[in-house]
Please model this.
Amino acid sequence: MTLLYGFYVLVWPALTLGVLVLICRAVLRDRRAAKREHRELV
Model:
């Protein structure tokens, strides 16, 4: 049971990192598109 709890606790940082990477990639893609179109990001 301890192994299962350990796995459960270690999965959350991995999921959080995945979501953070996904958000950063989307922002960078939008930033590049805005720069290409000569407009502001916001």
Summary: Residues 2-36 form the longest helix (35 residues). The radius of gyration is 17 Å. DSSP finds one helix and no strands in the chain.
